[in-house]
Amino acid sequence: MKASGFYRAIRWLVWAGALILAALLAFALFRPAPQDLPWTPLSLDQPIGLFTRHKLSGLRDDAPQCRALLHRAGLETTAVPAFGNEQCRVTTATRLAAGQDMLALSPTDVAPACTVMAATALWTWQVVQPAAQQILGASLVRIEHLGSYSCRRMYGRGEGAWSEHATANALDIAGFVLSDGRRISVLRDWDGEGEEAAFLRTVRDGACRVFSTVLSPDYNRQHADHFHFDQADRGGVSWGVCR
Ligand SMILES: [Zn+2]
Question: Which of 66, 74, 118, 219 has the fewest beta carbons under 10 Å from its own?
Fold first, then answer.
């Protein structure tokens, strides 16, 4: 009996060793990029990776860290003191300093929650700009948005859940202006087979990699004329909402 217990332990050790060796070998062979590893610091200059959205959500309540992240990516911000009451309390609103046109947001004075701003930067640089060049053959010059903060419940109803807009934790996007003068509109160009529709679908899908909620005209009629992006706290591990 004793001997068989001994051999079982040896066999278990051999298996465990083989598994660890296989994991090390896989790591060495595939060399995951920093953005694909959970323990590396987030950088807005890296491509969007497996853990980018998760790392962004970890900064939701940490405005100083989040603003430092923007700063390291070359985006200067001006402090927005906390404002609003109860369900409409905003604590991490972040406005880009004057003359910061790296995000091409129009109007420029929008002040969403910091992780919404950071995700917008990633999306603009690594999704929208490349998609504009590859699909439309022009570069992005302006992103037209419909604002961030609005102290209201969802769909402006008198009761029910509060909107993420109530805490500036959201941003609505209506259209894009390109270097050749073209304007791509969510309302006008979403339905169709053309390159404008392909572009809109690509940037919608790309947003799902950095925002916890992405709602497009595919979701419902209320979103026929804009994309809704937010960083809602879904608690723990989240797969996000992407429609
Ligand atoms: Zn919205």
Answer: 74
Distance 218 CA to ligand 1 centre (A): 14
How far is Cα 75 from Cα 233, in angstroms, rounded to an integer?
A: 25
Which amino acid is residue 116, in one-letter code? V
Q: Is residue 39 domain-resident?
A: no
Same domain, 109 and 219: yes
- 62 Cα to the center of ligand 1, angstroms: 23
Same-domain check for residues 231 and 133: yes
Residues with CB under 5 A from ligand 1 (ion): 170, 172, 228
Number of domains composing the chain: 2
Averaged pLDDT score across all residues of the chain = 92
* Residue 214 alpha carbon to ligand 1 centre in Å: 9
Distance, in Å, from the CA atom of 127 to the CA atom of 211, rounded to the nearest integer, reads: 13
Domain holding 16, by residue range, is 1-31
> 169: CA distance to ligand 1 center in Å?
9
pLDDT at 132: 98
Query: What digits encode the pLDDT tens for the residues 76-105?
Result: 998 799 999 999 999 999 999 987 778 899
Cα–ligand 1 centroid distance for 126 (angstroms): 22
Torsion angle, alpha carbons of 137, 147, 122, 119, to 10 = -150
